[in-house]
Each structure stands twice: as structure tokens, then as C-alpha cells.
Write a structure and sequence with these properties.
The protein has about 280 residues and is an alpha+beta fold. Helix content is about 30%, strand content about 20%. It has a three-stranded antiparallel beta sheet with strand order 1-2-3, with helices on one face. Strands 7-8-9 form a three-stranded antiparallel beta sheet, with helices on one face. Strands 4-5 form a two-stranded antiparallel ribbon. A hairpin with a 6-residue loop joins strand 4 and strand 5. It is globular, with a radius of gyration of 26 Å. The two termini are about 35 Å apart.
Length: about 280
């Protein structure tokens, strides 16, 4: 391994054993009994002395107020910015087939208080944008095209001014949904970050619907629930789909702007784009 490619740890390991390069050279009595690894760590600590680790974790209020998390008695979560090592790991993984896995692993290391996989999807999206804000800055570039004149507009969205809809105070672990036509009550569970990999494509989303229905009235048999969904009305099913896949809390992703060229008001969605992992 060349010197340029060696990490600090590699260099330190190369000196393990305590023998100096030149056995005839005089040894410093102050350092004779100090392992080289300790000296490297001391030097590293000196270089990082102005990095205040106590301020690395920042507290944010969750859109869900922490209600969907069992035995979690707070309405907030602690987040930190990504480190350079996180970014390197992420950029390397983004070119592979497991990019989503790599992203989840990196972001999970930036969350404290709740297991990342347990986050509901509205909370996860909010957490991702707040980690982005801490890591790269509050200004989030968005490229969009005016519906009136077709001019491309380059917007800067201030992530600190993000609008939130908070979860209803009446939330219970299994939410209830009143079905308008069948007059039955469905008990549903929230989709969490850990479920994302197993969710089908949007056109096949109905296949996943029964997985998040705990019971309908007193019936919990999955096969019965599946057949009920097939035979009930579209209005009943759409009510369930909205409650499960589009809960009424989270960050408000709708944003209005006036075109730079024709001044027509436009709507744009604040979502993940090519600027998400770039400096503002």
C-alpha cells in the first residue's frame, strides 16, 4: 500500500509492536511507553478540538409528535449532520444496485431517539430534509418549468420555513377509519420506513393494502379482509388508501411561486431532487 492511500489507522498499525525504524536511534524516554496508536489519537483529537460534539445533535419536533412509537414519551427527535465519511460512503453506494440500502444506513446513523426503521413515512421524509438542512445548508435549489410560458425557473426553497401539519391529538396505535358505504370500522397500522422495500409499484399498491389493515370490525382474518376489499365499493377502498398511504400529517410539500418571466403563479412539489446531496 502506498503512503498516499494509507489511512491514519493503517499508518498506526504499521508501527504496532513498539520497535523504532532505527534500533540504534536514541529513544525519547517521555514516549518510550506510549503506544503509537495513542499518539495518533492525541494528534487527531488536537485537530478536532474546535469541533463541539455536544452541539452535533439538534432537536426537532416530529410531525407525528412521537405518537406512533411505543413507549416513546417525547414529541421530538435528535438529528445530526452527515459527516464527510458518511457522504463518501453514500456517493460510492449511489452508483450501485443497493443505493437505497446505503442511504438508509447513512441516515440511520444521523438519528437518535427512535429506530430509523420504525419512523412513519411522513416523519421519515421530514427527518431526511432536516438532515439535509444540517448537512448542506437551509437553501434547497429546485428547478421547475412555468405552466404558463414554459420558462425554466431556478428556485431556492428555505428549509427552515418548512410548513408542518401535526398529527391529531386523538391518535391511537391502531387508527380507526369509518368506511362510508359499508358502514364498517377498519383498524389500520402506519407504514414505516422498514416497509418501503417491500411495497409494490404504485400500479400494484392494492396488493399491499391488506398488510396494513389490522381488522375490520371484529374480523382479522387476512383472506376475509382481501375478499371484502374486492367486493366493497370504490369509495370504501379509496377511503382506506388515503388513510394508509396519505396520512393527514407531515411536511407541506406544496409551494407556490411566480414565474420570473411572465409572473404567472405556479405550484411546485418540494420533493427529493438532484440537489438533495449538494451544498447550498
Amino acid at each position: 500500500m502506498s503512503e498516499q492511500k494509507q489511512s491514519i489507522i493503517d499508518i498506526a498499525k504499521g508501527f504496532e509492536g513498539g520497535q523504532p525504524k532505527n534500533p540504534d536511534a536514541p529513544r525519547n524516554p517521555m514516549k518510550a511507553n506510549v503506544p503509537e496508536q495513542t499518539l495518533v489519537q492525541d494528534q487527531l483529537n488536537g485537530l478536532l478540538e474546535n469541533i463541539d460534539t455536544s452541539k452535533m445533535w439538534v432537536e426537532f419536533n416530529l410531525p407525528s409528535k412521537g405518537k406512533p412509537y411505543v413507549n416513546y414519551e417525547k414529541d421530538s427527535i435528535f438529528l445530526r449532520a452527515m459527516k464527510f465519511s458518511d457522504e463518501k460512503r453514500l456517493q460510492k453506494a449511489l452508483v450501485g444496485d443497493r443505493s437505497k440500502d446505503a442511504l438508509n444506513v447513512v441516515l440511520a446513523g444521523c438519528v437518535k431517539g427512535i429506530d430509523y426503521g420504525q419512523l412513519t413515512l411522513p416523519d421519515k421524509l421530514y427527518v431526511m430534509f432536516k438532515i439535509r438542512q444540517l448537512s448542506y445548508g437551509k437553501d434547497y435549489p429546485i428547478n421547475t418549468t412555468c405552466k404558463g410560458c414554459g420558462t425554466k425557473n431556478e428556485l431556492i426553497y428555505d428549509l427552515t420555513k418548512m410548513s408542518l401539519d401535526f398529527m391529531d391529538e386523538t391518535y391511537q396505535e391502531h387508527c380507526t377509519v369509518d368506511l362510508p358505504d359499508s358502514k364498517k370500522t377498519a383498524y389500520i397500522s402506519p407504514i414505516r420506513a422498514k416497509h418501503e422495500e417491500s411495497l409494490p409499484s404504485p400500479e400494484r399498491i392494492m396488493e399491499a393494502l391488506p398488510s396494513f389493515i389490522t381488522r375490520i370490525d371484529n374480523v382479522s382474518e387476512e383472506m376475509v379482509i382481501k375478499r371484502f376489499l374486492e367486493q366493497t365499493t370504490i369509495k370504501d377502498v379509496n377511503t382506506l388508501k388515503t388513510a394508509i398511504f396519505n396520512p393527514k400529517y407531515g411536511m407541506d410539500q406544496a409551494h407556490k411561486y411566480n414565474c420570473d418571466f411572465c409572473n404567472v403563479q405556479n405550484d411546485v412539489n418540494i420533493g427529493l431532487n438532484e440537489n438533495f446531496f449538494t451544498t447550498s
